Fold this sequence. Notes:
Number of domains: 4
Number of strands: 18
Radius of gyration: 24 Å
Strand content: 15-25%
Shape: globular
CATH architecture of the largest domain: Roll
Amino acid sequence: MKVRVATLLLLAGLLISAGARAESPASEAAALRDQGDFKGAAAVLAEALKSHDLSTEQRKDLAFQADVLERIKQDYPFSKDGLFKKLSASVKDLTRPEFDRWMAEGRFDSKTIDGQTLYVSTSVANLYFRDPSLNSRRLDKKDDVLEQKGRLEISRDIKRAVQAGRTPYVLPHHFVCTMKTTVAEDAVPAGEVVRAWLPIPRQYPFQDQFKLIASSSPVKELGLDSSPIRSAYLEQPAVEGKPDEFTVTYSFTRDGIYFDLKPQDSRPADLSDPILKKFASEAPHVVFTDRIKRLANQIAGTETNQVLEARAFYNWVTGNILYSFSREYSTLANLSDYCLTNRYGDCGQEAMLFITLCRSRGIPARWQTGWDLFPNAKNMHDWSEIYLAPYGWVPVDAWAGLYATRYCSALTGPERQELRDFYFGGLDYYRMAANGDHSQELVPPKKTMRSDDVDFQRGEVEWGNSNLYFDKYSFGLNVEELK
């Protein structure tokens, strides 16, 4: 018996040893990174990249994993003392004991990097999102009362127009936008060709009349109006001693949207349709984990009416998730799982969690992103669409519902509920949607890695065989509303 046990233990040891040797360099590096050993992870990847037996895809993946290490470092710039200094400039009468208590409570996202505990760049803003009561002490507070009331009034205007016109697309608004991406001076050797992809509006029933007005250089390729990731592609030679600017100016028209969803008219989506089936299936960041399936079943129970199921998921996300700025999407393996695990996330992570819950129950759901053009609140933004028969594709903005529920302190309780209800099936006209799906490939494809491999709002830039990450260029969108 002792001999048999010893033999089994020897075999188990050999299997474990073989398994360890069989582990891929990318997996080994990821494990080291998660343990905080970034130098060790970088060494593993550098050694692997020396191999001459790698396929092109393997080499690209290893190079991307090496780049992720540097991206994460950029997202965590603050030491404990550096964060206290930042907070002291924002929180009135902040004391060190109070700060230490917040630290002990885990209020700030941190990461150990080569033995040092560092804190995420958005820690100050996220403190107020996670504890709105602290806004009364905020020294750099933004007054968004006009935005809160403006969004409510617009939602009412849209609903009235829909009722009067008997169409879900109403009140067209016309915009002229200029997207500019500026590559830092001498980030690219003079004379080298810089390639840039800038986001532009795609065609929808509620977004049309796109017209390219001007560009910094001739647009070499304009994405199809139905592209799930629409861009204008330009090339320009780098100029010595000067920033390299890429611009596109365009006009388009955008409608407000509102579907008066009636559960009694609902019927299940026909998943024999390949398009609908695609958007009811798993995808990157949309993974039907056991936890997701349990949560979806807990929220929706035995309900089979898809309007009511989707509404239950929307109510749960907007009632149980806090808003927080996020680190870069390319450094996260699963956005929906990240949001669910932490019970906070940004607009894209909230949208992805909602999408995943819907798809796990057979409700087609997809990404829709670009920019929020709301006056004095312009920003990149992500939301979603779900397919509800007989209505078709219906907008749902989980962030807007969460904003109404948790952060619209200038509105009454009933007004907050009204605004939250609007964004399940409704959307204001201050939007520019460039994307109709996530994790899509640009046209023409980049030769190098993406800076954001999930979303596309800031543009993408490369030269030669090198990607330019966000620290190498700035971006902005100028918006003019035509009255």
